[in-house]
Structures are given as structure tokens and as C-alpha cells.
């Protein structure tokens, strides 16, 4: 059980200069296709993002920030309000010690730093019970977040890990913009039949190659959710996200799983508005549908299916607590003290004004507020009432 998928192959050596990633990784993938035939898009995407040398997420954080920014980068209020929600969860579980908060896909630790710094300053009783596990597969980024969280590690409140703990007595496992970057299979309906879209290589470029599904589970996935795709419609299936939520539920004794990501419930995700699926490529703050271009040089994402997260979570004992937009979640948590957590000590009025403007980007429907959904599931506690879901 990990923070993200691992690469299973590929040449390793010195990290090439920016611009060489696509050339080298293209050669690796093209040779694999020449030897064994077209590969699933899930395999292609896994290498593009997670190849240990040439994958997009093997690049430095500074380069990745040049392609997109997240809620964490907007303002520390995002992490501060999450800390408020975690503290409430702790109280609902009768204040266990320790209370383990596991961040899956912690990156370089920005969000962990915001949560821990705020908890230490404003929630000392909760902080004294907190065991924060920052999970990140990348050794390089794990070294960065370990340095960033050194003060909290020294206080016994934070640890760094490559995998989620196998057993968590009481706590919350959460992810922020992790599941949308997990590898997906692509499918299309052709003449009433489900076909998988593979990746081939011809004429010096990667191409789409439809063929028989690589596994029966692809058809079963849609059948189980009562989804019927129209002829010509494309869609994605992310089994790794399903595995992630099921494994998270099995690791958790009592507590919550909190998932923040792009996505919809199945009926909205697979409707006519998404006839070409939801896969997109991000590069230099530009979005495109050229998902086969420049392997390793661009981010690839697809929307999360929250219905699947619900169904697969149930298999591990997780019960749906609620699903709201990020805007609803943050506003519900912030209005308790009129967003007083937005401000730092001794801020000037101009700095406070800037903070309020940044907050709007997190909660405004045209900003990040309506693009992200927050799914909370619980286990070992009966019908909990959470402030973040109070508008649900």
C-alpha cells in the first residue's frame, strides 16, 4: 500500500536535463511496444508519471510548480482548516492517544507543514496526541519533507514513510490531489462493444490502438455501477484508486478516510458532457488533450470516480459520511470563527486584504472551490457529525 504507483521497468542512471525526458522515455516505451505489441494506457501513464528517472513526478518540485498550482500553494488556510477538521475527528473518537493522521502523497511537505505548524500553535491539546505520518514514495521528496518537518519530528509529532502504515488504531488517512494522477485504463464503445484503447507506436509517434479489453474487470466495473456508455463514448477506469481506498479502509481500525480531488459521482462522470473522457495533459500552465505527447514532460490527470471510491471503500468497512465541494467544506469550517485562521499574528491591513483575496480563489465557484470534491468515509464510529460536512 503506497502513496502512488511504482514503476516496474526502465533504464536508470543520471537524471537527464529538462527536455531530454521525453526523448529518452519515448525510446524506452517505443522499444517495449516493438517487442511486445501495444501497451495499456495505464502502463503508458504509469511510466510517464512515475518512471524513477524520466517520469514527470521524478522531476524537481520547482519544475512541477511551473505546470500547475494546488490549493496548498494558494494560502496556509487550506491546511489550517484541515487541522480543525482533524481535531474534531479526534474528539469524536474520544480523544485517543495517539491519533494518527496519514497524508498519502505528501510531496515535499508543504501541506504537512501548514497542518502541523497550526496545530502546534492553536490546537496544543490535539497536537500533543498527534502522530502525523507524511507518506511519499519518492526518496528525493521524502528527504525534502523530512527537513521541512524536522521541528515536529523532534517533538515526536511527525514521521516520514514510503508507505501507509499497515495498521492504524485510530486516526484519519487523507489525500489531496493524489488519486487523479493514478494510472487509468481507457475504454471506448464501438458498435455496442466495449473496447480498450491501447498505446501503439507507428511512424515515429505514439498512437491509439483499440482492441479487446485486457481484463474482464473493465466491463464489470461499469456493470457494478449501473453505467451504460453510449456508442463512440470514451471513458477511464482507475483500478489503482479503487485499490488505494480499499487498502486504506483495511489499514484503519477506527476513524476516517478523507479524499480531496477533481471528480464526480459515476452518473455525472460518465454522462454526455464527458463523451471523450476526462484525461488531460498539463504543461507550462497550459492544458491540452495531447495525452500521448512528450512522455515524462507533462502531467496527466483524469477525474476521480467518487461512486467507485464509495463502493470499494465499503468492501473494507468504510461507510460514506458525506461528499461536498471544497468550497462547502472550507466555508463550513471557516465560518465558526469568521475565518480568523486566515490571518497571521501582527499582519498589516494590506496583508490581511491580500489573504482574503487568496481565500476567494479557494472557495469561489470559478476558482478551485467547485472544481474539487471532498469525500469523507468513516469506520468504527456511528453516524459522526462533522463540521466540514455541515452544509451537506
Outline:
With 392 residues, this protein is an alpha/beta fold.
What is the topology?
Layout: H1 21-36, E1 39-40, H2 41-50, H3 61-65, H4 71-74, H5 77-92, E2 99-104, H6 110-122, H7 124-129, E3 130-135, H8 139-148, H9 150-154, E4 158-161, E5 168-176, E6 185-190, E7 193-202, E8 205-211, H10 217-224, E9 234-237, H11 239-251, E10 252-264, H12 266-269, E11 280-283, E12 286-288, E13 299-301, E14 304-305, H13 306-314, E15 319-325, H14 326-334, H15 349-363, E16 372-379
Parallel strand pairs: 2-3, 2-5, 3-4, 5-10, 10-14
Antiparallel strand pairs: 1-7, 6-7, 6-9, 7-8, 10-16, 11-12, 11-13, 15-16
Helix pairs in contact: 5-6, 11-13
Describe this structure in words.
36% of the residues lie in helices and 24% in strands. The strands form 3 sheets. Strands 2, 3, 4, 5, 10, 14, 15 and 16 form an 8-stranded mixed β-sheet that branches. The chain has a single domain, classed as Rossmann fold (3-Layer(aba) Sandwich), CATH 3.40.50. It has helices spanning 21-36, 41-50, 61-65, 71-74, 77-92, 110-122, 124-129, 139-148, 150-154, 217-224, 239-251, 266-269, 306-314, 326-334, 349-363; strands spanning 39-40, 99-104, 130-135, 158-161, 168-176, 185-190, 193-202, 205-211, 234-237, 252-264, 280-283, 286-288, 299-301, 304-305, 319-325, 372-379. The chain has 392 residues and is α/β, with parallel strands linked by helices. The model is unreliable at 1-13 and 62-69 (pLDDT under 50). The two termini are 31 Å apart. The protein has 15 helices and 16 strands. It is globular, with a radius of gyration of 21 Å.
Amino acid at each position: 500500500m503506497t502513496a502512488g504507483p511504482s514503476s516496474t521497468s526502465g533504464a536508470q542512471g543520471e537524471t537527464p536535463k529538462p527536455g531530454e525526458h521525453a526523448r529518452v522515455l519515448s525510446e524506452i516505451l517505443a522499444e517495449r511496444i516493438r517487442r511486445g505489441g501495444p501497451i495499456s494506457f495505464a502502463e503508458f501513464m504509469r511510466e510517464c508519471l512515475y518512471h524513477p528517472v524520466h517520469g514527470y513526478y521524478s522531476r524537481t518540485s520547482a519544475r512541477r510548480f511551473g505546470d500547475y498550482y494546488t490549493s496548498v500553494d494558494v494560502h496556509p488556510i487550506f491546511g489550517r482548516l484541515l487541522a480543525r477538521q482533524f481535531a474534531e475527528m479526534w474528539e469524536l473518537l474520544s480523544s485517543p492517544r495517539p491519533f494518527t493522521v496519514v497524508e498519502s502523497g505528501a510531496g515535499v511537505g508543504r501541506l504537512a507543514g501548514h497542518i502541523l505548524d497550526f496545530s502546534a500553535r492553536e490546537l496544543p491539546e490535539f497536537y500533543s496526541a498527534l502522530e502525523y505520518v507524511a507518506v511519499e514514495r519518492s526518496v528525493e521528496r521524502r528527504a525534502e519533507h523530512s527537513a521541512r518537518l524536522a521541528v515536529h519530528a523532534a517533538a515526536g509529532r511527525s514521521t516520514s514513510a514510503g508507505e501507509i502504515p499497515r495498521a492504524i488504531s485510530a486516526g484519519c488517512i487523507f489525500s489531496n490531489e493524489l488519486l487523479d494522477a493514478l494510472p487509468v485504463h481507457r475504454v471506448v464503445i464501438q458498435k455496442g462493444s466495449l473496447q480498450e484503447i491501447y498505446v501503439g507506436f507507428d511512424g515515429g509517434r505514439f498512437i491509439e490502438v483499440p482492441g479487446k479489453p485486457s481484463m474482464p474487470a473493465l466491463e464489470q466495473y461499469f456493470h457494478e455501477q449501473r453505467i451504460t456508455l453510449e456508442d463512440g463514448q470514451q471513458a477511464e477506469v482507475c483500478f489503482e484508486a479503487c485499490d488505494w481506498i480499499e487498502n486504506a479502509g483495511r489499514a484503519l481500525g477506527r476513524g476516517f478516510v478523507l479524499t480531496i480531488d477533481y471528480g464526480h459521482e459515476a452518473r455525472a462522470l460518465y454522462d454526455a458532457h464527458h463523451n471523450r473522457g476526462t484525461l488531460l495533459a498539463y504543461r507550462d500552465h497550459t492544458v491540452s488533450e495531447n495525452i500521448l505527447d512528450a512522455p515524462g514532460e507533462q502531467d496527466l490527470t483524469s477525474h476521480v470516480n467518487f461512486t467507485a471510491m464509495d463502493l470499494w471503500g465499503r468492501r473494507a468497512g468504510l461507510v460514506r459520511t458525506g461528499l461536498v465541494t471544497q468550497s462547502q467544506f472550507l466555508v463550513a469550517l471557516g465560518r465558526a470563527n469568521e475565518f480568523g485562521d486566515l490571518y497571521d499574528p501582527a499582519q498589516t491591513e494590506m496583508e490581511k486584504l491580500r489573504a482574503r483575496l487568496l481565500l476567494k480563489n479557494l472557495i469561489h465557484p470559478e476558482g478551485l472551490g467547485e472544481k474539487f470534491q471532498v469525500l469523507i468515509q468513516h469506520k468504527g464510529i456511528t453516524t459522526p457529525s462533522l463540521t466540514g460536512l455541515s452544509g451537506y
